[in-house]
Design goal:
Blueprint (H helix, E strand, L loop, with lengths): L21 E2 L20 H6 L4 E3 L2 E3 L33 E2 L1 H24 L4 H5 L31 H10 L3 H14 L2 H7 L5 H7 L15 H10 L30 H5 L30 H4 L13 E3 L6 E3 L2 H4 L15 H4 L2 E5 L23 H7 L6 H7 L9 H11 L3 H18 L3 H15 L6 H12 L1 H11 L3 H5 L16 E2 L7 E4 L4 E4 L7 H13 L8 H17 L4 H4 L18 H4 L6 H7 L32 H5 L11 H4 L8
Antiparallel strand pairs: 1-4, 2-3, 5-6, 7-10, 8-9, 9-10
Helix pairs in contact: 13-22, 14-22, 16-17, 16-19, 17-18, 18-21
């Protein structure tokens, strides 16, 4: 048994199909015809009722459809006219369906709206018309006189007009957000800070700063109803792995009185996986951290037993002008009282007895006559500083690579001599002697050409530009020591210039030694040792410029790997080896100072931005509350013998106790919002 899809007949049904553009005109009387109109709005019944006789031989034949009764009785006239012509007006006039009328109305309204918008947006005042609102007071200065918008200052797309806006909408990319971000960063951050200003909260950055961050999710406390609702609406919040947008937290065009920096705790926490009710309810405990400081190496716990009454914080630390940060007093005010640096400093006579070797003539024997002070040259190896300077000579560089080859001589000069004998290359000793003599000549040359030659040598040796500040300073230090180099040359190689010019000299011109070592009142820490045929240097005061410059230049030259040639690679390898060799000589500085990469922070700069850039603390209100002696020790508690040895905190302090803070920072007391202690952007408070 078949069941009809629709039991109601065509005369009773009010159903109109979606693709039906026309309906029978008799439908309004409740008597629609079965066939209805065709797709072009023509009545099919009226069309079938039209008779168009055709001639069959000598007679005309009626063609009326059988549906309408077939051929009429009278038939066509002898002239071919229909005996029953249709009425002047068709009996039914089809009308458009309700859906078709709505479609036409919608399209018409849309076209009219687009036309109005085009006229509106392409008018001279279009930017004023589409402005979402007044800028905040901080940004009002960007606008020109009232009524004249200046949108393109922040929105680069506004420069190209309406066409550019349509293109941005059609492309569906984040280009506009990135452009606006760059405009914000360009005004609010320096070029060096822009790269990290937007990503300090990414999971990758937090993991690098403190491994403990990965464990914080296990410490989450109860969350508020609003945070729970946010999870349901937006899904699981995750730490952003990429750059965010400024407008996520800072909403503009909300009026001149709107403070764009104000954010609620809910706004902060909605993006964090570790959510909690408040600072007093669920906030994780403060965790320990690895060393987060550059500059001075100082352990308070080790210094505390040296004071009868404990640490006196104010003797070394003073608040800055705003009272926010505690500054470290200079060496002369804070350290020199105990660590005096005179002829006998706090190292005893270690510096004087163990000066830094600068240049020494190595002991070498030659098969052919070579101008060389054989009786005075007794050095067993090249000094590190001398090696670095020789690396700036293209002809000497291959020789140095052989000497310091780990699979060969490994820095041992006598081993290198044996290798040369085995390989039948004794002439390389003479080549090394020539390179050393050229170095001595350049160091002793006080003319402008000598200064230029030293600059070129240093630029190659350290892979730095000739205009680099550190390199220029090192060149100036070498120039200031010209008199020492001249004394050395006159004593050991008096015919050096003639020899380098190719003239014949006496290769055995050695004079009798008259002193154990030579010095001058102008030589400061320099020393020419006749017994060793060497020049050495000892630091004579705190912040010694000679050692400081060498440390800074070597530090800056590390990591220069871009577009390196084979010679650059050899020099980079030598610098790495010599830096290790010099680590002991630099210990008089590095014992108290941290030297990392290009930057050599000699002063106590405080915490690294990388570790504390989004945590802020203002000492002023806390010091006003704790104006008793030793008030700093309320929060900064030095470690002692009973402290947990596994807790590694910088400066010899225990981790801060969260309960100490939450006792005051609580509802109804001091501010306990997120922004009171934290800020997003990578800058020191």
């Amino acid at each position: 048994m078949r069941i009809p899809l629709q039991e109601i007949g065509h005369r009773d049904s009010q159903y109109e199909r979606p693709n039906q553009q026309w309906v029978c005109g008799w439908a309004k009387d409740g008597n629609p015809c079965m066939l209805g109109p065709d797709g072009k709005g023509r009545c099919t019944v009226a069309a079938q009722s039209i008779c168009e006789p055709f001639k069959d031989g000598d007679r005309w034949v009626c063609t009326r459809s059988d549906v309408l009764g077939g051929a009429c009785t009278a038939g066509p006239s002898p002239t071919g006219e229909c005996a029953c012509p249709p009425p002047e007006q068709p009996p039914c006039q089809p009308v458009r369906s309700l859906r078709a009328r709505r479609t036409r109305l919608t399209i018409g309204a849309g076209l009219f709206t687009v036309a109005v918008l085009l006229v509106w947006l392409m008018s001279p005042n279009s930017l004023t018309m589409v402005s979402p609102g007044t800028l905040s007071a901080a940004h009002l200065a960007i606008e020109p006189p009232p009524g004249v918008p200046n949108c393109q200052v922040c929105h680069k797309g506004a420069e190209s007009g309406f066409g550019r806006w349509l293109s941005m909408i059609a492309s569906q990319t984040e280009t506009h957000s990135v452009e606006v971000n760059q405009q914000c960063l360009g005004c609010h951050f320096s070029e060096t800070d822009q790269a990290i200003a937007m990503k300090v909260h990414s999971a990758a950055e937090l993991s690098e700063i403190s491994p403990a961050v990965e464990e914080l999710s296990m410490l989450a406390g109860p969350t508020s109803f609003l945070l729970g609702l946010s999870d349901q609406v937006h899904g699981e919040p995750m730490l952003d792995q990429t750059q965010g947008t400024c407008s996520t937290c800072h909403n503009e065009h909300e009026g001149a009185a709107h403070d764009m920096k104000v954010m609620s705790d809910i706004q902060c926490q909605v993006c964090h996986t570790n959510q909690f009710e408040s600072f007093n309810d669920g906030h994780p405990a403060f965790t320990s951290a690895t060393s987060i400081s550059s500059g001075i190496k100082f352990d308070h716990a080790k210094h505390q037993p040296r004071f009868d009454d404990g640490l006196d914080c104010q003797s070394c630390h003073q608040a800055d002008a705003e009272g926010k940060t505690m500054l470290v007093s200079p060496f002369e005010n804070s350290c020199q009282g105990c660590h005096e640096q005179r002829s006998k400093d706090h190292h005893g006579d270690a510096i004087k007895k163990n000066p830094v070797p600068f240049l020494q003539l190595p002991e070498m024997e030659f098969e052919d006559p070579v101008y060389w002070p054989a009786e005075l040259a007794v050095g067993e190896n090249l000094t590190p500083m001398m090696t670095l300077l020789l690396a700036g000579d293209d002809e000497a560089l291959p020789l140095l690579s052989e000497i310091y080859d780990g699979d060969g001589a490994a820095g041992d000069m006598f081993e290198w001599f044996f290798i040369l004998e085995d390989e039948g290359e004794p002439e390389k000793k003479a080549q090394l002697a020539t390179a050393i003599k050229k170095l001595v000549s350049e160091l002793a040359d006080y003319s402008s050409s000598g200064e230029k030659a030293r600059t070129v040598r240093l630029s190659k040796a350290f892979s730095l530009e000739a205009t680099d500040p550190e390199l220029q300073t090192l060149q100036a230090e070498l120039s200031a020591a010209n008199f020492v180099m001249q004394m050395f040359k006159q004593r050991y190689l008096p015919q050096l210039e003639d020899d380098l010019a190719g003239e014949e000299v006496d290769a055995t011109d050695d004079e009798e030694l008259t002193t154990d070592w030579m010095a001058s009142k102008h030589m400061s820490g320099w020393r020419v040792d006749s017994d060793e045929g060497a020049i050495s240097y000892r630091a004579v005061a705190h912040s010694d410029s000679w050692l400081k410059t060498w440390i800074e230049t070597l530090g800056k030259s590390q990591g220069k790997t871009a577009q390196m040639t084979s010679m650059d690679e050899m020099r980079a390898g030598l610098r790495a080896l010599m830096l290790d060799e010099l680590s002991g000589d630099f210990k008089s500085c590095t014992k108290c100072h941290t030297v990392q990469g290009e930057a050599a922070p000699w002063s106590a700069a405080g915490r690294l931005y990388d570790a504390s850039g989004f945590t802020k603390f203002n000492h002023r209100p806390h010091m006003a509350m704790l104006n008793e002696p030793g008030n700093c020790l309320t929060c900064h508690i030095p470690k002692n013998e009973s402290s947990d040895a596994s807790i590694a905190m910088p400066r010899g302090f225990l981790p801060h106790d969260k309960e100490t803070c939450s006792s005051c920072h609580a509802p109804g007391k001091a501010n306990n919002t997120c922004l009171n202690c934290h800020q997003y952007h990578h800058e020191r408070p």
